[in-house]
Amino acid sequence: MYHKLYHNNKWVLFIMLTCLVSSLPLYAGDFSIAKPKDIALSPIQNSYRDKICLNGIWNFKKDSANQGESQQWYNGLNHFRQIAVPGSWNEQFTDMRDYMAWGWYETETYIPRSWKNDKIYIRVNDATYAAKIWVNGKAVGEHEGCHVPFAFELNNYINWEASNRITIKVENILKPERVPTGEVPGSAFGNFPNANYDFFPYAGLNRSVELYSVPSVASIHDITVRPDFEGTTGFMNVEIEQKGALSSGKIIVEGFGKKIEKSVSFTEGKAKTKVDIPDVHLWSPETPDLYDVTVQLSQNGKVVDSYTLKTGVRTVGVTENEILLNGKPVFLNGFGKHEDFPINGRGSAYPVMVKDFELMKWTGANSFRTTHYPYDEEYYHMADREGIMVIGETPAVGLYFAGDSVQLSKRQKTCKQYIQEMIYRDKNHPSIIMWCVANEPSDKATLGFSVMRKTKEEKERMKNMFAESFSLAKSLDPTRLVMYVGVMMGPKEWFELTDVIAINRYYGWYTAPGDAETGGYVVGKEIDKLHKQFKKPCMITEFGADTYPGCHDEQAEMFSEEYQVEFIKAYLDVADERPYVTGMHVWNFADFKTSQAIFRFGGFNYKGVFTRDRKPKMAAHYLRERWMNSNQNK
Ligand code: GCB
Q: What is the pLDDT of residues 362-382, one digit of tens each?
């Protein structure tokens, strides 16, 4: 009887089972890929949204043989050790400094009962380099790429009224097809770990991990505010995307005694409008004035979601000789930096961030570049409030154009993903005036110093690939300048694509060592030629000399504090004499950790004007004197 029944109904059973399985959440091995757009709005708390920060001590287990998935470690780690999140694993453990393979993180959390009717997401703000997430043993999603967040919806994976196990497998294997690249052939000097960039490849959950809730009936998914002004009237061109299907919403712009409200209607989830702001307060380094922009979604006259961000009204432009902020020339004094500090590694360290802003302002700097990756979001909030101009850079450092076509197209895809992730996340910060799509792209391993030796066709192909990055950045954000940073002896033809000529130069250090005067002379000649050829404003985005703190000599000598001052002076003098030089960023703000190499004593780059623990070298005092004076003379 049973037998017969089974056979008669086997197709029905089969169909029922198929339906059941497809309605279940994905299981181990079945990961969805993170979508860049899902990080457009960072989690906030208000009456419609909530967030929980999962930072703290997590369980951790090294997986050198990559056996965790086959052994189902996502069902619970055993024999684990403890690790701080955020933080890089390389600094926390005595046996893992150079470990670049797989590591498993695990924590437990409850979901508040008040989130029951909401959509629930996890946002990982940086898992370097690649990550997979499981919740309660079920595969959720994966992401590849460092120093940019990713998010996944969790509703199908969570337990209510029981704790939830969150497992994240992170991997940081240096590979030639990745961006930035590692283990590439052709470097003139070896380094270990073999990264094709000059900072330590810190791995792990370097930034916070958050859970957040948004209303499920409909929610604001993205807000883009593009500012402009004419006379005393400011404009905000606002574009909104929602998840859901509501038709009406409102924008409220508030600040400086004014409250401007405007209704918007949505078509296919999108709405846009222009808000006029009379007697506008413009954002600038001198007056970092910010407005609150609130977007509300309503259903039957009732607000169902609301999101407030702070932004400013300012414009950015260029002439042949100048970068313009609000139509007036600005000169960028400042630094290239790193997120780097003892024990934290690349992990977010807010006291260090606050101190860095204090010290930047103490030197008289008005800008920095987020070398060589997008930073923790708090950096940009601080910069908005402090009036510091920022060049936002993707992780495409030492962008490498050699390798087979599979590697090339993988890198190209990653570069585009980074541009999207960076611009989606950071686009509403008035402090960001330029996007940098790559630092020192080259066909040679960066540490080997690059000379492009390619055929005409290969050069053309590389230029086309690069042009795609520029046009993507421009199409996502037509309001800002787009640039890349050129390496010493590197190709010049890509400058045709940029708004600003930006170069890193070390004449007087890597060439003409010990001769800062010649260094200044050579850089002056080169920059004159570049400006004549391209007729664009120029910036020296890096120049500096390794300086061992406390090393002195009555006559300046390499590695002494005196030589660093002499070197920096020579370059700043070059800029002063040339009206088309619009910015000088000293390399580096502070000493930072690198891989081991014969030219990196103790595994450090000592070009900081501050030590790694933020004590000024002579050069920091020199910059303060010079920049503070130039600020007064304005
Ligand atoms: C550069 C790189 C930077 C290095 C620096 C140096 O051009 O952009 O990442 O740290 O040179 O000190 O060699």
A: 999 999 999 999 999 999 999
Dist CA 312 CA 389 (whole Å): 13
Query: Does a structural domain hold residue 3?
Result: no
Residue 537: left (phi > 0), alpha (psi -120 to 50), or beta?
beta
pLDDT at 404: 84
Residues forming beta bridges with residue 250, ordered by sequence position? 263, 296
Please indicate, yes or no, whether residues 95 and 145 belong to a single structural domain of this protein. Answer: yes
Residue 579 pLDDT greater than 70, yes or no: yes
Last residue of a domain, one of 215, 246, 272: 215
CATH of the domain at 497: 3.20.20.80
List the Cα angle 301/302/307 in 5-degree steps. 120
Q: Are 28 and 139 in contact (CB under 8 A)?
A: yes
Q: Is 497 helix (H, G, I), strand (E, B) or coil?
A: helix
Termini Cα distance of the chain: 96
Give the residues across from 104 on adjacent strands: 61, 169
Residue 417 lies inside a defined structural domain of this protein: yes
Residue 306 shares a structural domain with residue 325: no
- Owning domain of residue 616: 316-632
| Atom in ligand 1 nearest the alpha carbon of residue 487 | 7
Q: Which of 311, 343, 372 is the last residue of a domain?
A: 311
User: Distance between CA 118 and CA 127 in Å, rounded?
Assistant: 26
Residues 93 and 164 in one domain: yes
What is the pLDDT of the chain when averaged over all its residues?
A: 93
Q: Are residues 299 and 354 in the same domain?
A: no
Tell me if 335 is assigned to some domain: yes
Q: Would you call 440 a catalytic residue per the annotation?
A: yes
Identify the CATH number of the domain in which residue 263 sits: 2.60.40.10
563 and 482 assigned to the same domain: yes
Q: Which of 605, 606, 609, 612 to mutate to test the pocket of ligand 1 (most atoms within 8 A of CB)?
A: 605
Among 632, 543, 554, 555, CA closest to 588: 543
Overall domain count for the chain = 3
In this predicted model, which residue has the larger pLDDT, 272 or 489? Answer: 272
How many A from CA of 196 to the centre of ligand 1? Answer: 11
Q: What is the dihedral of CA 444, 446, 450, 454, to 10 degrees?
A: 20
State the pLDDT at residue 222. 98
Catalytic option among 339, 377, 542, 562: 542
Confidence check: pLDDT of 26 > 90: no
Q: Any residues with Cβ below 6 Å from ligand 1, and which?
A: 198, 372, 439-440, 504, 542, 587, 605, 607
Q: Which of 144, 377, 393, 440 is catalytic?
A: 440
Is 189 within a domain?
yes
Q: How far apart are CA 438 and CA 394, in angstroms?
A: 6
